[in-house]
Design goal:
Blueprint: H1 4-30, H2 40-57, H3 64-74, H4 76-85, H5 94-125, H6 128-131, H7 136-159, H8 190-224, H9 231-251, H10 256-270, H11 278-306, H12 316-325, H13 329-342, E1 346-348, E2 355-357, H14 382-388, H15 394-418, E3 430-434, E4 439-447, E5 451-458, H16 465-475, H17 498-505, E6 509-527, H18 528-531, H19 535-555, H20 559-564, H21 566-572, E7 595-596, E8 601-602, H22 604-620, H23 633-652, H24 660-671, H25 690-710, H26 720-733, E9 734-736, H27 742-749, E10 754-762, E11 767-786, H28 788-804, H29 823-828, E12 839-840, E13 844-847, H30 852-858, H31 864-888, H32 892-895, H33 917-921, E14 986-988, E15 991-993, H34 1069-1073, H35 1078-1082
């Protein structure tokens, strides 16, 4: 449990299930059992036990999402009220996704629990466990041990980065292992499918059979000797043990095979007299093994931490405590036993080699419940945003990337664990994800059947010296080490050297995957000072600024309103006067391309000389025509806005200063939307604030992007068309925003492909401006599994040192780097103020159903709706198969054409010549030139469905019902080929054709087929638009030969596209030589 509320919820749920099962179990063992027979009540108990265990294993201990789903269905008015309060903030898709995932799980459990209960009841009632009790148990134990050893030991070792710490490369490599930079999502390998399949066999077949066998044998022994056992206690123990063992097998199978093996060895071979029935033996051994695992992890941590050849002394106390800890080794072992028994951390005192036992803590460890509280423009005062710029440090701005990483893990973590990409795992395990700049600690809090609850703790991008040394330790390879003691004899190919193998065994962590692929953002930051250092580069930025303003003016839907606005027109009328120039000191020849040197300012003629072509091009791309002359209102408005925008930039940059720092300050102020209109000549812009919000502000941001692109291809935007298309493309796929804007966070969490921002980094060491560019792509991480007792011990030691011992020294020895234990990284991930993570996620649940690859491998969730759709589809295919097989000799695949039958060729024949209405009426045959590929064919009814005309089967089958429009009768003998087995066919000059009969799901035998005068079209094949199809009169009498044919069935693939070139399609010799088949084509229409 992760909180008192979840503890009460989980306990209540388990007690309710145990109380329900207890009555069935007690009733089944109170009455005598017939010889070699299992009572129905006990079979019911077994079915309910397995079904309830499966359902409980699939549910999270946190009832928040479940309650949210119930509230949205039962109390919709409360949900509407909460939505109204949160409507002001950008929508977050996560709650809806979580509710949908929980809904899918509940729908699936509704079906699967019934199926599991029925199957378990049938198996238990079959008396197989009683009849084969002397043999079946050992067969199941051997099978579970063999499958478990192969699945959870051999396969994970072969997939590790350093298998058995002897080999230098994994034996089973993912497809991305040899790629320098991953280019897409990880591919599912055969051994991942094998691992997932074997886990399913374990969870759903082997261990339920083991528990059911033990239940049946123990219950039979209790019933056979009622005086030896207390029935009430025995029923309670059997119920609790069965629930616990089944839930453990469903939730965490990696450790079950060892528990089962120790149970068999201890109680069947070593101490059989102590056995109280295999079920209780297995239950007690599972409790004992969990404590033994804890003891093993603690001893590994202690021995690794105090090993004298690798301990790092962070302070003088460490050097003093090291020799005094050696005589107390026996006491240290006793402390380890007690801490394993009471599940308490064993922490080093002040980071030294002296260990003491702390108090008990849950798996979550920390008491605080984190919910992300962002600091942006939506929840801070305006004066704070403009003056102090809160959250402008790197850590606060970079925390959003860890939040996005948490969302990505929420979609894929559970599925990746099921596929074995992180190796073996259990509740409480800790992993470190390391990449070029992202370093996060992932703590598994709860592991269920198809769900994982985790917490992510993101570390600083630019960490301390100690953190960088530990990051180097987990990212550097040891394959090149050739040392053996004091010499370097080398090593065998793909095998570690002696020194490397020895060193890897004395670490509290191991690399489980070196190429773990996860979706995220690649971050590139460029120093803005280097891009705007000289005046020529600033001039390019100002030019793009002006052109971006003109673009947004021409694209605005309010342009007509602005051009007709009386206040704007009156204010801009003086600029058209001869000799007018705006001589503001912010304008300069060094940065303004359209500066009028003669008038010493910006004038309309000089503006038009540079930008009129661009204005006219933008106006021509606008849907509604607008006047584009040099003295038109459009040009005047563009001139006024461009002057206003440059004056605002100069005002924010302290106008007269020519240095770079004020210019960058002003550019950043405009980028975040701080426009300060100080000149009376610019007050006309207040007539409509959209002139600032929708034109000038996006112009600044787009200019920065265009200026950045200028460095890669300086001449790319010389042509107006190229520049216009580039701005339009950037506007569509790129989000350019200040990082304090709520839209920035919303865009990242909604997986926007690209983002750009101008960041002002202000801290003690630097004051600089950076252009941040984000691109969504798949990133490669190294997955490092850390000894969980090492993490818990170091966390407990930090809490003891800072809270109880009051050691506030920022350079204290307990946080100095220790590569063997990753001491600095683990201590940095503590809760604040003990550690300094830049992001701590709330407890997040990942479900297996949200993993796209696992969903494609196993299919979607089982539900009543999915079963109904599957049955409907199967029923349709059955009808189509019966129609095709009984009437035309085809198969199901040949007749699968959607909603109705059709006509297609059985062989790759050339397209027929398209008849025109004239030669159809006159009986002539005037071919038209065929089109490319599969040329258009005349349809039977003239509906243009693109199918070739058929040749009738001879003799045609007589079927009841009305007949569709059919080809005209022909006279004279028709050549025919004897039909093959189960297929009536006919040969003609265009190949072999069949007439099939199809009976749809809701149709009848006499229902017209697609291509009939009704004009119906198959659902799976879109009709072709054949402009040359003849118009068949509905008054034409149908031919006698086809009056009783109810529908036409296709016996070729649905696509209707033959393979090969038209000239390569074979024409049988009989068809070329047959003079009697041609009249049939002439009279089809």
């Amino acid at each position: 449990a992760t909180s008192p509320l979840t503890a009460v919820f989980s306990l209540s749920r388990s007690l309710l299930a145990a109380a329900l099962l207890y009555g069935f179990c007690l009733g089944a063992i109170k009455t005598p059992w017939p010889e070699q027979h299992v009572p129905v009540l006990f079979s019911v108990f077994c079915g309910l036990l397995v079904a309830l265990s499966y359902h409980l294993s699939r549910q999270s201990s946190d009832p928040t999402v479940l309650w949210s789903l119930i509230r949205s269905k039962v109390f919709p008015e409360l949900e509407e009220r909460s939505l109204e309060t949160a409507r002001a903030e950008p929508p977050d898709p996560l709650p809806d996704k979580m509710r949908q995932s929980v809904r899918e799980v509940l729908h699936s459990d509704l079906v699967m629990c019934v199926v599991i209960a029925v199957l378990t009841f049938a198996i238990s009632a079959s008396t197989v466990f009683i009849a084969l009790k002397s043999v079946l148990g050992f067969v199941l134990y051997a099978l579970a041990g063999a499958v478990g050893f192969f699945t959870h030991y051999l396969l994970p070792q072969l997939r590790k980065q350093l298998p058995w710490f002897c080999l230098s490369q994994p034996v089973l490599k993912p497809l991305e292992y040899s790629q320098y930079e991953v280019r897409g999502a990880a591919q599912v390998m055969w051994f991942e499918k094998l691992y997932a399949g074997l886990q399913c066999v374990e969870k759903y077949l082997i261990y339920p059979a083991v528990v059911l066998n033990a239940l049946t044998v123990d219950a039979y022994a209790v019933v056979s000797h009622p005086d030896k056992f207390c029935l009430y206690c025995r029923a309670l123990l059997m119920t609790v043990a069965g629930l616990k063992l089944l839930r453990s097998a469903f939730c965490c199978p990696p450790q079950q095979y060892l528990t089962l093996a120790f149970t068999v060895l201890l109680f069947h071979f070593d101490y059989p007299r102590l056995s109280q029935g295999f079920l209780l033996d297995y239950f007690l051994m599972s409790l004992l093994c969990s404590k033994l695992w804890d003891l093993l992890y603690k001893l590994r941590f202690v021995l690794t931490y105090i090993a004298p050849w690798q301990i790092t002394w962070g302070s003088a106390f460490h050097a003093f405590a090291q020799p005094f800890a050696v005589p107390h080794s026996a006491m240290l072992f006793v402390q380890a036993l007690l801490s394993a028994l009471f599940s308490t951390p064993l922490n080093p005192l002040l980071g030294s080699a002296v260990f003491i036992m702390s108090y008990a803590r849950p798996l979550k460890f920390w008491e605080r419940d984190y919910n992300t509280k962002r600091v942006d423009h939506s929840n801070t005062r305006l004066v704070t945003q403009l003056d102090r710029n809160p959250g402008a440090d790197d850590n606060n701005l970079n925390s959003i990337f860890y939040e996005h990483l948490t969302r990505s893990l929420q979609h894929t973590l559970c599925g990746d664990l099921v596929l074995g990409r992180w190796g073996n795992y259990s509740p409480g395990d800790c992993f470190v994800l390391a990449s070029d700049y992202l370093n996060a600690l992932v703590h598994l809090i709860e592991v269920g059947n198809g769900l994982v609850t985790f917490q992510l703790r993101g570390l600083e991008f630019r960490g301390t010296y100690c953190q960088q040394r530990e990051v180097e330790a987990i990212t550097e390879g040891v394959e090149e080490d050739e040392g053996c003691c004091c010499c370097e004899p080398g090593h065998l190919p793909r095998v570690l050297s002696f020194n490397a193998a020895f060193g890897q065994r004395w670490l509290a962590w191991e690399v489980t995957a070196s190429k773990y692929v996860l979706e995220g953002y690649s971050i590139s930051d460029n120093n803005a000072a280097s891009m705007l250092q000289v005046f020529d580069l600033r001039k390019i930025l100002i030019t793009y600024y002006v052109k971006s303003i003109i673009y947004y003016v021409s694209r605005s839907p309010k342009l007509e309103a602005w051009l007709s606005h009386e206040g704007i027109t009156t204010a801009l009328r003086p600029v058209r006067a001869p000799g007018y120039a705006d001589s503001d000191p912010t304008f300069s020849l060094s940065v303004d391309e359209d500066y009028d040197l003669r008038l010493s300012g910006l004038s309309l003629p000089s503006f038009c000389a540079v930008h009129l072509e661009w204005i006219q091009y933008c106006a021509s791309r606008r849907g509604q025509p607008v006047d584009q002359d040099w003295n038109s209102p459009l040009v005047t408005l563009c001139f006024g806005l461009c002057v206003l925008g440059r004056r605002a930039l100069g005002t924010a940059s302290h106008s007269m200063s020519a240095s770079l720092e004020p210019f960058l300050y002003g550019l950043h102020a405009l980028f975040k939307g701080d426009f300060r209109i100080t000149s009376p000549r610019d007050e006309w812009v207040f007539a409509d604030m959209d002139l600032l919000h929708r034109v000038v502000a996006p112009g600044v941001r787009m200019a920065l992007k265009l200026h950045q692109d200028h460095f890669t291809s300086p001449d790319e935007y010389e042509e107006p068309a190229a520049l216009y298309d580039a701005i339009a493309a950037n506007e569509e796929r790129l989000v350019i925003s200040h990082e304090g804007d709520p839209a920035w966070r919303s865009a990242i969490l909604s997986n926007t492909p690209s983002l750009l921002a101008l960041r002002h980094v202000l801290d003690d060491a630097s004051d600089e401006y950076k252009i941040i560019m984000l691109n969504r792509r798949h990133l490669s991480f190294r997955v490092i599994k850390v000894n969980r007792e090492c993490v818990r011990g170091l966390w407990a030691g930090q809490q003891q040192e800072l809270v109880f011992l009051r050691n506030r020294n920022p350079e204290r020895g307990s946080i100095q780097n220790a590569k063997q234990a990753l001491r600095n990284m683990i201590n940095s991930s503590c809760d604040q103020p003990l550690g300094y993570p830049i992001y701590v996620s709330p407890l997040t649940t990942s479900l297996a159903g949200s993993h796209p690859q696992l969903r494609a491998l196993w299919g979607g969730p089982v539900s009543l709706g999915a079963i109904a759709r599957w049955l409907l589809h199967s029923w349709e295919r059955l009808h189509k198969g019966c129609g095709a097989g009984c009437n035309s000799g085809g198969n199901v695949d040949d007749s699968d054409c959607g909603g109705g039958g059709g006509l297609t060729s059985l062989s790759n024949n050339p397209p027929l010549a398209q008849p025109t209405p004239e030669n159809t009426a006159g009986g002539g045959d005037q071919p038209l030139p065929p089109g490319p590929g599969w040329g258009p064919r005349p349809s039977l009814s003239g509906s243009g469905d693109g199918r070739p005309p058929p040749l009738l089967q001879w003799p045609p089958p007589r079927l009841p019902g009305p007949s569709p429009a059919s080809p005209a009768p022909t006279e004279g003998p028709r050549p025919s080929r004897p039909p093959g087995p189960g297929l009536l066919s006919s040969e003609g000059p265009s190949g072999k054709w069949t007439l099939g009969v199809r009976k749809g799901l809701g149709g009848s035998e006499g229902e017209p087929a697609s291509g009939s005068p009704k004009g119906s079209t198959p659902k799976s094949q879109a009709p072709l638009d054949l402009s040359l199809s003849p118009d068949i009169s509905t008054n034409a009498s149908p031919p006698r030969a086809a009056q009783d044919i109810s529908c036409l069935d296709s016996s070729a693939p649905e696509s209707g596209t033959p393979t090969g070139a038209p000239g390569d399609w074979p024409v049988p010799a009989e068809e070329r030589e047959s003079p009697a088949a041609q009249p049939l084509l002439e009279h089809q229409y």
